[in-house]
Specification:
Elements: E1 4-9, H1 16-32, E2 37-42, H2 45-48, H3 65-79, H4 83-88, H5 105-112, H6 125-133, H7 137-149, H8 152-158, H9 164-185, H10 194-208, H11 219-268, E3 274-279, H12 281-295, E4 304-310, H13 314-320, E5 338-344, E6 361-366, H14 372-375, H15 383-396
Parallel strand pairs: 1-2, 1-3, 3-4, 4-5, 5-6
Helix pairs in contact: 3-9, 3-11, 5-8, 5-9, 6-10, 7-9, 9-10, 11-12
């Protein structure tokens, strides 16, 4: 197999310093997987990307550690409402001791009060008013039934002993968090903020006479520490990185043709077969460039043997009808090159193409196991990425 060129086109918000790091990773993996190609790059960000000093970015929210910890707690509970209840179901090293004739106070609270709370004869004036005022009453009973139906509350209260108030709070938070989760998944979505969820918890605890905090409620301390060491630095870094990326995407509407022309000129300088590998917005530009080049009567850039889009939004923009060169409903040109589209479900900026272009694209799903912000730039160190690229090159060369 003769040596080809892998031309890398970067994505949104990337400039020369971070681009060099990605390029080094790519060259290292090309060598590791013994791909028969040299690596070239097209740096469009410093040439045609936006200039951004960050003067319009707001300051970080001024919150106390307790407020930040509480906000973080609701974030994870919205994703997994019964997370804390599962922790309370973990067997303790010291099982609850109940003497003959005594009643486990936590079990009594559950059986005599909390489990009966949704019965029609139970007065819930304050809660009903709160739910109706915020137009969220439709989410309450389904959320309650989901949490109770998990069988976790009964187990948690059985092992709580004298810590019934703490488990009561965890149960109430699970119901409120399930409401938040269901509201966000509704059609259309409904936003239930943590402030309202907190009021729901407060009213339920008051009705159950379980307002005392409890002995095991250490989560505020835990999440307070996490806020200082993890959350705030991540948010600060994300704000600085996301703003230029958004700017580049908006700027593409104005200078998209200039970016495509720059990439075209780079390709025309290369001899032999070229495999065009593009990340994020770079994938949109390269996808549209290949549509332009291969729609002509005499297809252009014939030396491009394959297009590799990684973490790209090209399929989404096509479905939106937002692409300049390929209106929605229009098929890809017959001469469109072999197309590999790599996406990661953890990456919220990546999209699949095979259901829109079943005959023209080959999707490859990878799993970086990284959070969304990191997953968008985590493709280059994954073996699955390079195995798919190598397979495309081998197929193109027969």
């Amino acid at each position: 197999m003769s040596q080809s060129t892998l031309l890398f086109v970067h994505g949104t918000g990337v400039r020369s310093e971070s681009f060099s790091e990605s390029l080094e990773q790519i060259r290292s993996k090309v060598a590791e997987f013994q791909l028969p190609c040299k690596v070239e790059a097209c740096l469009w960000g410093d040439v045609l990307g936006i200039d951004f000093d960050g003067l319009s970015l707001p300051e970080e929210p001024v919150r106390s550690d307790a407020e930040e910890a509480l906000a973080l707690r609701w974030e994870y509970l919205k994703i997994d409402p019964v997370f804390d209840l599962r922790l309370w179901c973990t067997p303790s090293t010291e099982p609850v001791q109940v003497r003959l004739g005594e009643v486990n106070s936590a079990v009594s609270t559950w059986e005599d009060t909390i489990s009966r709370y949704v019965r029609p004869e139970v007065e819930k004036v304050e809660l009903s008013t709160l739910l109706q005022r915020n137009r969220i009453e439709r989410f309450f009973l389904p959320a309650w039934e989901k949490v109770v139906g998990s069988d976790l509350p009964e187990t948690a209260f059985a092992g709580a002993g004298e810590d019934g108030p703490a488990v009561s709070r965890v149960f109430a938070e699970a119901v409120a968090a399930q409401m938040m989760h269901d509201a966000a998944a509704a059609d259309p979505p409904f936003s239930l903020p943590p402030l309202i969820a907190g009021k729901i918890v407060t009213v339920m605890l008051f009705d159950w006479q379980q307002a005392r905090l409890g002995l095991k409620d250490l989560l505020h301390q835990i999440f307070g520490a996490a806020t200082k060491t993890i959350v705030r630095p991540l948010r600060a870094r994300a704000s600085k990185a996301i703003a230029p990326a958004i700017g580049d995407i908006l700027n593409y509407v104005a200078v998209g043709q200039d970016i495509r022309t720059l990439i075209r000129k780079k390709i025309e300088l290369l001899s032999g077969d070229v495999f065009l590998m593009a990340h994020s917005l770079g994938g949109i530009a390269c996808f549209e460039l290949m549509v332009e080049a291969r729609t002509c009567e005499k297809p252009e850039l014939a030396n491009v043997r394959g297009l590799i889009t990684v973490g790209s939004q090209a399929p989404l923009l096509y479905e939106f009808g937002a692409l300049k060169t390929l209106p929605k409903g229009t098929e890809l040109p017959a001469a469109f090159p072999a197309w590999l589209n790599i996406y990661d479900e953890n990456d919220l900026l990546s999209y699949r193409a095979d259901r829109l272009f079943p005959a023209a694209s080959a999707d490859k799903q990878v799993d970086s196991m990284l959070p969304p912000f990191e997953a968008h730039s985590g493709y280059w160190m994954l073996d699955d990425t390079w195995q798919a690229i190598k397979a495309l090159m081998n197929k193109a060369h027969g």
